[in-house]
Amino acid sequence: MVGHSESSTDAVIEPTSEELLAEQVRVFNKMKGSTNFNRVAEDVYPVEVTKSKLVCEMVVQHQHLNSKGTLHGGQTATLTDVITARAVGVTVKDKGMASVELAVSYLLPVKVGDVLEITAHVLKVGRTMAFTDCEFRRKSDGKMSAKGKHTLAFLPNQPGISVENGTQF
Question: Where, if anywhere, are coiled coils annotated?
């Protein structure tokens, strides 16, 4: 329509990066002291968030290690699952999710005291699925220690993620 202008009530207000980060900090704080399997992410702290990327950090501690004294592969796989799902959850808030595929390649060892920077990228969000990848880097030298990929299906008639009540956490 010529001469038509949208009213300010029609405009969608996008959250700021600070608001997105604050939301993810609240979500990860809910994992602290969790009694379910998400407790493996209780030492993870979000540091940067966009609609397509979530960057977190974690200091590797003794409870994260395998018998050889390096970061346990199961810990890395679970963090790939949790952090990539949270990256999708930044924009997909009205749907439950389930893993369809999860794969991790382990490249270098990580030891106690190492700080990991974990970056999850949302590659594509479709009508029924989302595709992500994840990189684990040692902050001390920037070298990649692991690379993961995670495909998620959106569940019909399931609750979405709620920061307030910790649904799916």
Answer: none
CA distances from 163 to 23, 95, 128, 167 (A): 7, 13, 22, 7
What are the tens digits of pLDDT across the range 11-32? 778 889 899 999 999 999 988 8
DSSP tag of 91: T
Strands 129-138, 53-59: pairing is unpaired
E strands, 27-114, in order: 45-49, 53-59, 96-106
- Whether 124 shows a pLDDT value over 80: the answer reads yes
CATH architecture assignment, domain 17-155: Roll (3.10)
Question: Is residue 7 scored above 60 in pLDDT?
Answer: no
What dihedral angle (degrees, nearest 10) is formed by the CA atoms of 168, 156, 11, 47?
A: 30
CA distance 128 to 168: 18
Q: Which amino acid is at 99?
A: S
